[in-house]
Amino acid sequence: MAESVADGGCPQCSGSGCAVGPDEVWPHLAGEGDSVGGISFAVEDVNGRAVAVAAAGIDRDGKTVLEAYEIPDRRTAWAWIRTHAAVRPGCSVVIGPVLSNDPEIHELGIATSVATYTLTRQALSRFRASASRRAIVHVESPLLSAQLEAFRVVEGQSGLRPVSGDPWEVLRAAAWAVLAAETERRGSPSVW
Fold first, then answer.
1. pTM for this structure?
2. What pLDDT was estimated at residue 48?
3. CATH ID of 28-151+165-186, from 3.30.565.10, 3.40.50.300, 3.30.420.280, 3.30.390.50
4. How far are the Cα atoms of 23, 70, 111 from residue 95, in angstroms, in the given order?
């Protein structure tokens, strides 16, 4: 029998938690999109061997356009962000705590924030809600799709709480980018 939401379980899931994305929806959200205005980037360390990078923006129809990848070197990630930010005013970046002291962050010249555990829980909740509403268009990322399928969460009062030991760096960066884009570009509150 599934745990109740009050016990930390999802109403439709077992005690091992729920997937972040709604069942069978994610593959149907793949497509092309072109965001307008600034882009919200997110960068997270992947055990010191790579970085997860995500970019999210809002398109003319109000959907969130998302790209998320793992890149072997953070200098490439910073260069990619710098290139886009130079031609798109209003960009921002959310940085994972491990990368927060990287000197190249200050050279980006865009608004920067460091992710916290609370922000991550809120971001996972927003990501799930936006995917459920089919308000995300994503450029197919096999690694993000695999992490979405494997990673498990339970619902809590302040958002979704991770309960899985599976890797989720790309998912974490994607969720941060989606939350930042939707909050900054739409003026939405960060928690509903």
1. 0.86
2. 93
3. 3.30.420.280
4. 29, 14, 11
